[in-house]
Every structure is written in structure tokens, then in C-alpha cells.
Amino acid sequence: MKVKGIISEEKVTLPEMRSVLLRVESERLAAEKEMSYEFRRSIEHANQLSKTDPEKSRDLVSELVKMEKMKPEIAYRIANIMPKTRDEVRAIFAKERFTLSPEEIDSIIELVITHY
Fold first, then answer.
1. What is the band of 1 on the pLDDT scale with cuts at 50, 70, 90?
2. Angle at the Cα of 71 (from 70 to 75), degrees rounded to 5?
3. How many whole angstroms separate alpha carbon 34 and alpha carbon 51?
4. Are 47 and 18 in contact (CB under 8 A)?
């Protein structure tokens, strides 16, 4: 499959991507079309790594973006990974030029747990 051009671009979380892939899969099955190896692997990857539903992941991103030092890219990364420990959160912020206080890390973990 060759891509001729990008029509639009939008950030989505992994659970949202999973729901889109499952919808496309059901459409292809209904039309009796063959699914490529890459498409099947994408669905398998999304099924294994999605830890919540699309609505909760989108809510989590919107809550995280409201935080002071949070960039949208990092908020989406947190929503995809769903870290549960301080070390996991620190690893996500490792490339940033600032460090988070223990209270900020704990508030991120609390948000993740409430949206799990």
C-alpha cells in the first residue's frame, strides 16, 4: 500500500487507535477483503498494549495537559504507557530540561490510576 499524501494529522492515544483499527477490521471482514500482515500486526500490538478505553485515555490527556510542566506530547505518551511507579514517570520525563518534584510525580500517578 502506497501513501500518496497526508490529508490531516491528529494525535490519538493507543486505545483510540485500537478502536479505529477494530472498526476498520470489521468493515474489511464484512466486505470479505484480505487484511495485510502489517494491519494484523498493528491490531495485535494495539490489543496487547491498550490498558484502558478510548474515553478514559482522552480524559487523562485533557487532565494532564492542564498541569504546569506538561507538554501535549508527554501527556499522550503517559496516556499510552500508563505508568504506575515514580521511576516510570521519571523515565518519560528523562529528556526534559527540568525535573519533577515528588508531589508532581505522585499527582501524575494518581491521575493515571483514576483513569485506568
1. low
2. 75
3. 28
4. yes
Q: Note the pTM of the prediction, 2 decimals.
A: 0.83
Closest CA to 73 of 9, 7, 8, 12: 12
Contacts of 25 (CB under 8 A, 6+ apart): 35, 39, 43
Entry field: residues in the chain: 116
Task: State which H helix or E strand residue 40 sits in.
Answer: helix 37-49
Q: How far is 110 from 85, CA to CA, in rounded Å?
A: 10
The whole-angstrom distance between residue 49's C-alpha and the CA centroid of its chain comes to 9
6 pLDDT tier (thresholds 50, 70, 90) = confident
The DSSP string of 18-31 is HHHHHHHHHHHHHT
Distance CA 96, CA 53 (A): 28
Residue 8 confidence (pLDDT) above 80: yes
Q: What is the Cα–Cα distance from 87 to 83, expressed in whole angstroms? A: 9
Give CA angle at 44 (88, 81), nearest 5°: 15
